[in-house]
Amino acid sequence: MSTTQLVSDPCPQLSFVCSDVLVMVMRKHQRYFPVFSPQQQLLPAFITVANGPVDPAAVAAGNEAVLRARFEDASFFYREDMKHQLADFRPKLKGTLFQKDLGTIYDKNLRVEALTPALAAAMNLATATETATAAAALCKADLATHTVTEMTALAGTMGRHYAQKQGLPEDVCTAIFEAVLPRQAGDVLPQTPAGVIVAVADRLDSLVGLVAAVGAPSATADPYGLRRAAYGMLQALVSNNVSLSLKDAVAMAAAQQPIKVSQQQQEAVLEFVGRRLEQLLVDSGVSTEAVRAVLAERGDDPALASKTATQLQAALDAGDASPLKSIMTALSRPTRIVRGKSVAENLAMDHALFEHKEEEDLFVAYQAVAQQLASAGSRQDVEEWLAAVQGLVAPIDAFFDKVFVMCDDEKVRNNRLALLRNVAGVAKGFVDMSMLPGF
User: Fold this and answer.
1) Which end of the chain is less packed: N or C, by CB atoms within 10 Å?
2) Rounded CA gap, 137 and 212, in Å?
3) Cβ atoms 281, 220 nearer than 8 A
4) Over the stretch 42-68, which tens digit does the pLDDT of each residue have?
């Protein structure tokens, strides 16, 4: 095998064409290696590989001739596209079917644009609403351009390029490109608020609409790439630490669909996305047990679930150096006692029925912990939760050393069960302790 590096300019008159187009022609169509400067500028050279002894000059000339022809085709498509504004291509999407029950790509684009403002508010990214809405309106337009029709892998890239050429704000141009990210495993992820909003809106529309129209993917078939769409949506949220209620987001997307999306179908979407979230977190290095324990309580918010799972795994790995182990041991006792027992949710504790000091001590400790957790809000991290709940360990141990819960007096027994029910519930909204190893 011999390697021939060509340093001649195969088509100097095409320097005005977007470099991404030229690179795509070389890499995808011809299997050539483009050459870049240290500043990442495309150079008028390429590398190709030939098997066996060859005449370098003849091979170079032949490859240059083929590449010139390819570049001329690309140049024609590019020049035709540049005659129009990016928005001019949007109506042409009416001619491309997305799915028979969900309409055309144009219809999908309208849904994504309509979904964007509500989604931005739900993500607490309202300041990016204007930029995101402008990008959402144009995020599919380049699919109708000549260049992307010929080279579909350039979707998003050409949208950004044409938007820049016509002078649109740079944040809008960036969001148009980020709307397609990630395109495959290992790809870059959206980084701007507007880009995250549009990327999530587009994938959310596909997930909700297609599950309602054709059902969730089977174990062997995923013709619309919904697994990739769900995984990419979750990556965008988690990598940027953007909080979003999946349940609320699915309901918003369902309201935009041209067909009825039942509650059962919305739950199917949530279950499907939940499985992808579990895989994403396991792939990040968190144990399956820790992931499932977190998702049972915080799975509706992928970013919060990811943060909690990572911190929980660190606490588990720390062993005795973390208070988690002693807290799990303590909370397992009231959890086991109340499991399977019929304790009315509205049953209030009666101080007059406390017969031991340890009952009163546990009640006071529980009230202090509950108040501390309430003050921290629903997004407290693992260290905050452990620091608060650690105050229950000693009172729980003392309670079980002195108090017999299942006594003969029904009122006293139910009063003690109500207290233990509340104590066992301090992990609600944080993690399902019963799913952790050793609980």
Assistant:
1) N
2) 24
3) no
4) 877 777 877 777 777 777 778 788 888
Torsion angle (degrees, nearest 10) of CA 344, 349, 355, 359: 100
Rounded CA-CA distance 356/126 in Å is 54
Q: What is the pLDDT of residue 28?
A: 76
Q: How many CA atoms does the CB half-sphere of 184 hold within 13 Å?
A: 2
Q: Pick the residue with more confidence: 406 or 14?
A: 406
Q: Helices (H), strands (E): how many in the chain?
A: 19, 5
pLDDT confidence of residue 386: 94
Phi, psi of 287 (to 5 degrees): -65, 155
Q: Are strands 33-36 and 42-50 parallel, antiparallel or unpaired?
A: antiparallel
Could you tell me which residues are beta bridge partners of residue 120?
none
Beta carbons of 415 and 353 less than 8 angstroms apart: yes
Omega before 53 within 30 of 0, i.e. cis? no
CA distance 320 to 93: 60
Grouping H, G, I as helix, E, B as strand and the rest as coil, residue 260 is coil
Top-confidence range, 21-30, 89-98, 339-348, 350-359: 89-98
Give residues with Cβ within 8 angstroms of 206, minimum separation 6: 108, 224, 226, 229
- How many other CB atoms sit within 10 Å of the CB of residue 8? 12
3-class DSSP assignment, residue 99 = strand
- The mean pLDDT value for 288-304 works out to 96
Classify 159 as helix, strand or coil: helix
Kindly state the DSSP code that residue 258 receives in the 8-state scheme: S
> DSSP assignment, residue 219?
S
The first and second tokens of residue 409, run together, are: 């007096």
**CA-angle at 124, arms to 168 and 183, nearest 5°:** 55
- 180-204 burial by CB neighbour count: b if 16+ within 10 A, else e? bbbeeeeeebbebbbbbbbbbbbbb
CA separation for the pair 30, 47 (Å, rounded): 11
* b/e 362-384 (16+ beta carbons within 10 angstroms → b): bbebbeebbebbeeeeeebebeb
Dihedrals φ, ψ of 65, to 5°?
-65, -45
391 touches 368 (CB < 8 A): yes
- DSSP characters over 8-38: S-S-GGGTTS-HHHHHHIIIIIS--EEEE-T
